């Protein structure tokens, strides 16, 4: 059976399009693209072949993430399918093969809905070069740490509010500041110091 890409996502990490075959794969891709520890993302990176219980098995993982701690092979599957014997067997031998190389292996299912919604929103601000450069240079000031998103926007009164808001969202996407992504993003979120 031939697999067909459902869509392409322009990844800021890759500066190129990365394919996904389901909304759940897109969710994992958005989170990987937001993760500052991820330096590269490859979709459908390789065909794994192994002899398992006397039969040749084949599997193509969904993603390979190049991270600062080494490669991470990722399979994406809805939670309701993880208990299926064929899925569990496939992921078990894939895990063994990947980890035998010293790489990490992850099986990802549905992420927390609010975190995903926030990351999806911030993804709209992922592409650099579209925001006022002088404002971007000025905003990542330590004096904004501890202020709310609304206060940070108001602090740049010499610029139109939509321009400031867009620049701040870009800085949040780049993680120049941190905010609590486990609750819906609002003007009341407090800006934290980037790690």
Lay out the secondary structure.
Blueprint: E1 7-11, E2 16-20, H1 23-34, E3 38-43, E4 48-52, E5 55-59, E6 63-67, E7 70-76, H2 85-100, E8 104-108, H3 113-123, H4 133-138, H5 149-154, H6 161-173, E9 177-178, E10 192-193
Parallel strand pairs: 7-8
Antiparallel strand pairs: 1-2, 3-6, 4-5, 6-7, 9-10
Give the N-to-C terminal Cα separation: 45 Å
Structural class: alpha+beta
Query: What name does the CATH topology of the largest domain carry?
Result: Trna Endonuclease, Chain: A, domain 1
> Strand fraction band?
15-25%
What is the CATH architecture term of the largest domain?
3-Layer(aba) Sandwich
Helix and strand succession? EEHEEEEEHEHHHHEE
Summarize model confidence as the mean pLDDT.
93
Largest sheet: 4 strands, mixed
Counting H and I runs of at least 4 residues, what is the number of helices?
6
Reading off the top of the CATH hierarchy, the class of the largest domain is best stated as: Alpha Beta
Give, in spatial order, the strands making up the sheet with the most strands. 3-6-7-8
**Cα-atom radius of gyration:** 20 Å
Shape: elongated
What count of domains describes the coordinates? 2
Beta-strand segment tally: 10
Detail the poorly predicted runs: none
* Percent helix range: 25-40%
Label this structure with key terms:
195 residues, alpha+beta, Trna Endonuclease, Chain: A, domain 1, 2 domains, 4-stranded mixed sheet, elongated
């Amino acid at each position: 059976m031939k697999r067909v890409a459902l869509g392409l996502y322009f990844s800021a990490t890759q500066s190129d399009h990365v394919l996904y075959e389901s909304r759940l794969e897109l969710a994992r891709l958005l989170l990987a693209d937001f993760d500052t520890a991820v330096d590269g993302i490859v979709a459908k990176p390789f065909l794994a072949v192994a002899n398992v219980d006397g039969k040749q098995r084949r599997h193509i993982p969904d993603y390979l993430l190049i991270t600062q701690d080494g490669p991470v092979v990722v399979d994406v599957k809805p939670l309701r399918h993880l208990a299926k014997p064929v899925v569990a067997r496939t992921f078990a031998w894939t895990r063994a093969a990947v980890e035998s190389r010293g790489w990490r292996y992850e099986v990802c299912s549905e992420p927390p809905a609010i975190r995903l919604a926030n990351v999806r929103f911030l993804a709209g601000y992922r592409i650099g070069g579209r925001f006022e450069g002088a404002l971007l240079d000025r905003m990542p000031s330590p004096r904004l740490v501890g202020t709310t998103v609304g206060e940070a926007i108001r602090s740049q009164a010499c610029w139109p509010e939509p321009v400031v808001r867009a620049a701040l969202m870009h800085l949040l996407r780049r993680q120049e500041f941190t905010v609590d992504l486990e609750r819906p993003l609002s003007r009341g979120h407090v800006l934290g110091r980037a790690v």
